[in-house]
Structures
1.
Amino acid sequence: MDSAKYLDAIDSLCARDLTAADSEPDAYRSGPGYRIESLVVSHGMRDGDAAPRMAAVEDFYALRSRIAQQLDDRWGRQQPLWGMGTLKLRLDRGEDIPEPWLTTSIVTDDLDLWQPPGSPRWIALGVGHRDGTDEIHVLAVASDIDPV
């Protein structure tokens, strides 16, 4: 897996106009102020046997870690790993969680999170695997909406 192409995709997210949702095919989800893209998607892992799925999840976490290390080298480690437990609890209490943080709290366990120097934009990486009826994704998030 060539991490240079993933870094290029993240660079594109950093520069992208996020003022409106778009329907480009590489968007996992987008809306005003944010875009979530799948950097890598598994194939054949929906509703599959649990053991191969978990092995694939581990591989996707390893890839995310390699990409995150390269972003740390570029931007510095800015935030500790952000677990989604608090957002899930707040959602269960009926609080409104803005996108993209609502979606990421549902499909990921945690996110690596940066705010590139000189930019108001937030960039996050996560592994979307919580929905067993969906493929596994390494997700890149760009958001002009502060994490909650």
2.
Amino acid sequence: MEVVEDGRRTRWAEHRRRRREELVTAALRAITSKGAGVGMDEVAAAAGTSKTVLYRHFSDKEDLYLAVAERVNSRILRELGAAARQAAGPRDALAAIIGVYVGLVEADPEVYRFVVSHPLLERPLSSDPVQRISATVADETARTITAHLRVGGARDSSADALAHGLIALIRTAADRWISTPDRVPAATLVSDLTQLAWGGLSAVLSPQEVP
């Protein structure tokens, strides 16, 4: 009997996990359609359900917001990894990372605004997922660029700190760019940011002179 009960609990837990994922997908649709200021009623409508059902799967608005932010974080990491693996060198890796970040902002600006501004929340978060996303992207950037620099014989001791600084630069630029009505094309921003970032990075992380 205990084995049967365990099996039922496992199936029920898997059902709840899948349902949560479906509701997060519906929330993303609602944000894209209605804008970053979407409310819980609109999320429920997009899911074809009610707020009561939403709250069965998410303890509160913060829980839903964090689930959406985690989905966005996973997508960024997945696409960053794919882009970085195809890069031929550190400059290409940097350009790929910037391209992924700007591309995701351009592809769904309302989702980006939702994650950055967290309008669903009525109180400050104890841990801001935006900072975690930025840190995760910076860590991936540092790993990618450092690996390429080592292959080329460059000094890489500052790569981690510089990568976090670069991500702050990229994020600030993307925030400003997406909020500008007459903004330049994404490709132009990616090219300009790559030149700006690589100009400084290549000067600091230059190959060491042979003694």
